[in-house]
């Protein structure tokens, strides 16, 4: 498996997290047997559930610590799966231009497809080419200019919110979850630029932003899990985190369904600003609703 760092298939293997796991197991062996056994059990559970931040003390970026530092290409082994990380521009160009059918998106596709269906990121090459042709006209200069303005507006709202958090603190120091704040700002940008809808998630917390945040965290955990336990029959009933995942996905899908329905049923008047979604519906006649069914995880078409 390349745990020792030897070359496998000519690619250097980076497995810092496995070294951390090994060191932890060694430490457990030096402790009281009952306590060591309990900690080893927690360690195995965290590995299965993809909670690598509890093992390594840091989230996913710890696996990418060696990115581009010494090698332009290396492999990360996570249980029975592996990921090849590429930073060498020559290798990247070859992958993207020479024979893309020889390469897959690997774990990225696996963890995002239940959320995004056959969207641009997890799509197979044929679907990707079709979707790309459909959306490229939407990135016209006027839309890009407006989208840039909206990004700046959302960034200012985020900065103002952080300043408010500091100002109401007696010590003028505030502890905030920046990952959640950045997710909120991203959701607001997507809402305004794609759907012409203001989620307002930067300035106030809502069930929707919590659902989106938890979906992203679940995707991260699945990318790090050594066993895809969520594919087990009845996983929603056996694992609380999977039940929460299904509920979060259902909530996000319900909101997206409403936004898509509004775009289809309420076309803008002449001269009104078109959202990116409305542009695709009006000018291209594209099916913009291919997403996974939150109950089954399989793709379904809503028109």
TrEMBL record:
InterPro entries recorded: Cyt_P450 (IPR001128), Cyt_P450_sf (IPR036396), Cytochrome_P450_Monoox (IPR050196)
Keyword match Iron: yes
UniProt xrefs under Gene3D superfamilies: Cytochrome P450
Coiled coil: none
GO molecular function, one term: monooxygenase activity
Entry keyword annotation includes Heme: yes
Top-level taxonomic group: Eukaryota
Keywords: Heme, Iron, Metal-binding, Monooxygenase, Oxidoreductase
Family (UniProt): Belongs to the cytochrome P450 family.
Protein's name according to its UniProt entry: CYP97B3 protein
Originating organism: Symbiodinium necroappetens
